[in-house]
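User: what does the whole thing look like in 3D?
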Amino acid sequence: MKFKNANEIKISISSLIWLTLFFVIPTIIVVLISFRNSDPSGGIGVGWSIDGFADVFNPSFGMILWRTVRLSLITTVICLSLAMPVSIYMAKAEEKIQNWLLLLIAIPFWTNFLIRVYAWKIVLHPEGLVKRLFLTLGLVSENASLLYNEGAVLLVLVYTYLPFAILPLYTAIEKFDFRLIEAARDLGSGQIRSFIKVFLPGISQGIISAIMVVFIPALGSYVIPDMVGGPDGEMLGNKIAQRVFVDRNLPKGSGLSTLLILAVILPGLIRVVYKKIKPISATPLNRKINSYLTKSKSKS
Amino acid sequence: MKEFLVFDGIDKSFGDYKAVDNVTISIGQGEIFSLLGPSGCGKTTLLRLCAGFESPDKGRIILNGVNISNLPPNKRKVNTVFQNYALFPHMSVRENIAFGLKVAGKSKSEIKQEVDSMLDLIQMTDHADKKPALISGGQKQRVAIARALVNKPQVLLLDEPLAALDLKLRQRMLIELDQIHDEVGITFLFITHDQGEAMSLSDRIAVMNEGKIEQIGRPVEIYESPISSFTAAFIGDTNFFDGRVIETLPDNYSLLAIDGLPNATCFNDSTRSVGDMVHVSVRPEKIMMHRESPPFDHKMNVIKGVVENLVYLGGHTKYWLRAGEWMISAQQQHYHFQLDEKPLTWNDEVFLSWHADDGFMLERYHIDDEKMLTMPEDGDLLAKDIGDCDNIEDELVN
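Assistant: Here's the predicted 3D structure for the full assembly of 698 residues, as structure tokens:
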């Protein structure tokens, strides 16, 4: 790869080292382990094999994979549909209100994630407030369970990832020039068409970011299905944990992890290879810093 | 002239702020009509009311006999050229122009044909597949006009369409706009704060201030016979004299008492009577300067002055002269540069004269309007400026 100038290397070298040490190398290790033989006493055995991927042929695997993808997709759709009106409202509100709303969205992060999931266990508990309320209203029957099913997993997934969907959408919408909507309306377009043809393409970067920060972590969920899912709400993350911690079969756990990694990066890879487009950088920061550096250089 | 677009008693407030105050305008078919005024005068609000982005608190907007006051923007046969063009960044030039036609549900071949002819009109055929980010300001401007015109609106609204362009390009676009108007012949409603643009393009101009119409008229009427001190000061430059009517003369003239000009004559449009306090506006180029006292003429007003400041501008020179309590702005056009005659310079004593027909007694007068006159703040302003320039040059040399 040819770098445009030395500054680009200087600026990115620290992140490159960090990512290599703590992301690229561990990922390669995981992929390598998935091709090793397992050791009956736990850990990694000698020699190479593809037994690590044997779970693919396990009949329960397909079901769990399907559930994982399905729950992640539904979570993404719900999060984006809820985040859209919230973000539009925030972006259009006065600056003072905007700051308060941003604070409100950030507040849940002040509490540990595990504790928040525990809180949901209490809320959805058979003796909990919600169940009682629904019973009184006649919405659920006496022995229906609000916990330990797919619905509970979905609810907590949406709760967890909603702020992550709001933030990139809000950022994109705040930059969106709403005069474009006026222009579309002026050219005879109704409200819905203006929204689809002008607004959504205008904030497409925000939508892509929101999808990535919701869908990908949702695919790898482990704690949420583990705590509120029960056997009916198991996802791929739980299966990996089970292979690693219960079966002590590292190659099988790694095999599933490798498949998950592939599932996440494959669509992106296909896009890059077939459409011959450059990967989108997350921010235009790099370019900004570069122009700043070249400017200051020419001054001196 | 047939009434085509009518604003009938329009009121519009935002909170406590009255943006448009009882405005009534009637615009004819095929006319280029300008709304001219400083920022915040309500001209943009009026345009947004016409486009349908706002609805009036009171009054009606009638287009071709139909009351459109409460129609949504997409149901009005008007299209807008936005101030910053508002081209769709994710669409090519061609797709931008085709947008309105697609919405209208035209067939593909029809769209292609109409967009092609529009691209031809604005000479953008070679750039049809570029995204707006890759074309220049003047080209964006033309695309924005084409995108609006392709829908064959009954009225084209132009919201400060030239504000983002540099001077030379602005002048060229003005001519292009005029040519496009000749070609399509629809009504243009042109919003601007630039009197030069309004004067050169418009059939008629409405001068607006603080939400109200100050004056409606052809450019020459607005300039040569302003009816308010705001119009007089906002369009071009002028001199204001305070005076009192002391006698009515035959043929619509009045005798005025002005400080330093005890027997001034001025044209009177027969609305002023003896004893009225008036403000007389005289344009700088209407004031003549003489080294010797001009021959007496009962319709010429003469006052003695001293050159306090001057700015040489190539084609003409601007002078500011002190005459008693008045600071008078005057102009000298250089039809030929007087090599044999020493040009007027600082502290020269001159006789200033203006013809009775060139003065206008003003109806409405706001003391604030005098602030819009381009009077130098102190006598040695120019010398100071030159000094500053020297300093800058010194810095550059170092």
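In plain terms: Chain B touches chain A through 23 residues (CB under 8 Å). The radius of gyration of chain B is 25 Å.
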